Amino acid sequence: MADLTFAQAVQNITAMRGEIVQALWETFIMVGLSTTFATVFGTALGVLLFVTANRQLHYSRKLNFVLDNIVNLMRAFPFVILMIAMIPATRAIVGSTIGPVAASLVLSVSGLFYFARLVEQNLREVPRGVIEAASSMGATPLAIIRKVLLNEARAGMVSSITVLAIGLLSYSAAAGMIGGGGLGDLAIRYGYYRYQTEVIIFIVAILVLLVILMQTTGNFIARKLDKR
């Protein structure tokens, strides 16, 4: 980009606007789908981790040990290696190993176990007295989970979803390395292989703006939900 003027760089970026919009849409698909699935299933797993822990609603030492180690194992997988390892499963489930939907499956699995740990930590911050009070009034375990634990931890949960979504956004850029599409794929094809540094700079700027927007929105919602 050193030999380019600013006007030439802008002209190059403008000429690619169609591909940039398409890549941005693919990124939204990947992050949106994976955040949704990781939040739903990660919440269920996180709740299960919490309630089976010592001194909790459904204490089970063996089950908690197994779940805890599975979460630790999956979180230890580097994302790129996980993408490669899941190629057969992705092909079987999605029917393809390339494209944003295929990448969403791997992103969902990666985010699921990460979010489960965040959910567990959020639930641990709920005062035990609140749980005991609900139990003494005859609330069922399911009601305690739904109306006490998740309700009391909702502000922290929103913050955790924000962290998850931002993390998956960065992973979605890496997904472009093996055909996931999106902004990462565009940066690699044009910025790296064709030495168009201005493309990389522009895409990084888009990603920074997205992170700022997501974090600001998440913080705003969490403050509204925080009853403290």
CATH class: Mainly Alpha
CATH topology: MetI-like fold
Average pLDDT for all residues = 88
Which structural category fits the helices and strands?
mainly alpha
| Main beta sheet | none
Termini separation comes to: 51 Å
InterPro entries: AA_ABC_Transporter_Permease, MetI-like, MetI-like_sf
Pfam family, one: BPD_transp_1
Transmembrane segments: 28-53, 65-87, 93-115, 155-179, 199-222
Domain ABC transmembrane type-1: 24-218
Characterization of this structure:
With 228 residues, the protein is mainly α. It has one domain (6-225): MetI-like (MetI-like fold, Orthogonal Bundle), CATH 1.10.3720.10. 81% of the residues lie in helices and 0% in strands. It is built from 11 helices and no strands. It has helices at 6-15, 17-51, 61-76, 79-85, 87-94, 100-124, 128-136, 141-152, 154-175, 182-192, 197-225. The relative contact order is 0.14. InterPro entries: AA_ABC_Transporter_Permease, MetI-like, MetI-like_sf. This is ABC transporter permease. The chain crosses the membrane at residues 28-53, 65-87, 93-115, 155-179, 199-222.
